[in-house]
Amino acid sequence: MPDQLNSISTIDGRYSKEAAILSNYFSESALMRYRVMVEVEYVIALSKEKKLVELPLINNKTQSSLRKIYQKFDSISARRIKKIETQTNHDVKAVEIFISEKLQKLNKSKLKPWVHFGLTSEDINNISYSMMWKDGIKNVYLDKLNAVIKAIKSLTSKHSKDAILSLTHGQPATPTTFGKEMAVFYNRLNKHYKKLKELELEGKISGATGTWAAHVCAYPEIDWLKFSKRLVKSFGLKHNPLTTQIESHDSLAEQYHLLSRVNSVLIDFSNDIWFYISRGILIQKKVGGETGSSTMPHKINPIHFENAEGNCGLGSALLIHLANKLTVSRLQRDLSGSTVIRNQGLALGYCVVALNNLIKGIGRIKINKHKSKDELNEHWEILAEAVQTILRKNGYPDAYEKIKELTRGESIDKSILQKIVSSLDISLNDKKRLMKLTPSSYTGLSSVLAKIR
Predict the structure, then answer these.
(1) What are phi and psi of 89, to 5 degrees?
(2) pLDDT beyond 80 at 297
(3) How far apart are alpha carbons 151 and 344 in whole angstroms?
(4) What is the Cα–Cα distance from 389 to 251, expressed in whole angstroms?
(5) Are 47 and 58 in contact (CB under 8 A)?
(6) What is the mean pLDDT of the chain?
(7) Cα–Cα distance, 286 to 288 (Å, whole number)
(8) By three-state DSSP, how is residue 219 classified?
């Protein structure tokens, strides 16, 4: 665990406990482990090529021993690679040398020439970074996002019939239900969640400039396209046969953009909850020993939703830059993308911190039904829409203008509205319906919409 008080990033400092699980996928040690995995699996795959006669098939026992190099990768291994890198000034070359050392200890020195055979660093890196992202999303992020989605879904069912005043342009509009408003966010997030689970990341193994030139020169009789496709697929990735030295990162960028859209929805959600709390529509549960303000003892601030908003914004800023930068490279390759992609874990860290805060925040809110009802009863003018619509039904050509003149900018209560309705020349059934209408009952299909899945 890093020293929280001396860390520059809040992900490694203040929020280190929340983001620590991501270290398994995005730390420098994790990157080394993934790189070792790709290198080892590549050698094993080469040995299975019958036309590659100089490298006999590696038996199951030896394969198991080789795989233990990355399966039992630990801090000692990581420090050894880092020490080698101080001499090579090249991180992937340091991994190659580390594996060669391991082969020496396993008495398998004959395999050394096949480590990194015909490859460029990007062959190892693109697969490693994609697997890191894939595993981090699958094993951490999606679980957190799903927890938020489930919490919001619970609100849709629990409050499907709880009427609240909706605002457009910050002004009283028409009634809705809290459950229906939550269903909007549930639906948006659930669609993104499904897309995230379906998206495939791409990978490549094709040499210095994406032509398999070294491979073909050494073994022209081998179908290297087929070999690469099979190997890339074994890592859970889709093969991209057309690249420069680097894999284009278009599939990664698609996921980065999708996460930034999820963050936009979560910011929208956080803002709405913040306003509901500000209006008194929602109450936050008290937590013993907690302080809301250093000078105002009465306060319970919506800190979890504010925190989520801020961290979603930070996450999206990094994600969007990652998507924009990694899909652009000078000719075959430059190193500007290499220094950027190392931060994908940091971007995801901010997203995870945001999700954790939303889970906590949602767990603390409850609807204030008395306040909701009082707020609705202060605005009987919101039924003007219903009145003018019934007038249109009854053939009034200037229905909107008539009700607008009576209600726009006016403070209207129950008695005033019913007086207006009583004076209308409309059918008896329509008049009865309008006379029975209240701000709390004028919610349309809200209770039905809240339950749509």
Answers:
(1) 55, 30
(2) no
(3) 27
(4) 49
(5) yes
(6) 94
(7) 6
(8) coil
Q: What is the pLDDT of residue 2?
A: 55
pLDDT of 409: 86
C-alpha triplet 359, 176, 410: angle, nearest 5°: 125
Residues with Cβ within 8 Å of 11's Cβ and at least 6 positions away in sequence, in order, are: 19, 346, 349, 350, 353
Q: What is the DSSP string of 60-108?
A: HHHHHHHHHHHHT--HHHHHHHHHHHHHHS-HHHHHHHHHHHHHHHTT-
Rounded Cα distance between 186 and 452, Å, is: 10
Fold of 379-449: Ribonucleotide Reductase Protein R1; domain 1 (1.10.40)
- Residue 110 Cα distances to 42, 103, 146, 214, 301, angstroms: 15, 8, 48, 20, 65
Q: Which helix (H) or strand (E) holds 359?
A: helix 344-362
Q: H-type helices in 174-287, by residue range?
A: 178-198, 213-218, 224-234, 250-279
Q: Which two tokens stand for residue 255?
A: 């996921």
Q: Which of 222, 203, 197 is nearest to 212 (CA)?
A: 222
The answer to whether the Cα torsion of 332, 334, 338, 341 is positive or negative is negative
Tell me if residue 282 falls in helix, strand or coil: strand
Domains of the chain, residue spans: 4-117, 122-373, 379-449
Q: Which residues are the active-site residues?
A: 169, 293
| Predicted model pTM | 0.93
The number of residues making up the chain comes to 453
The mean pLDDT of 362-371, rounded to a whole number, is 96
- What CATH number does domain 122-373 carry, 1.20.200.10, 3.30.870.10, 3.30.1360.30, 3.40.50.2030? 1.20.200.10
Six token digits for residue 47? 């040995």
CB atoms within 10 A of CB 162: 23
Q: Angle, nearest 10°, between helix axes 91-105 and 75-88?
A: 120
Asked if 265 contacts 308 with a C-beta cutoff of 8 angstroms, the reply is no
**Which CATH number is 4-117 given?**
1.10.275.10
β-sheet bridge partners, residue 176: 164
Cβ-based neighbours of 413, under 8 Å, separated by 6 or more: 380
Share of the chain above pLDDT 70, in %: 98
pLDDT-above-90 percentage for the chain: 86
Structure tokens at 214: 């070294």
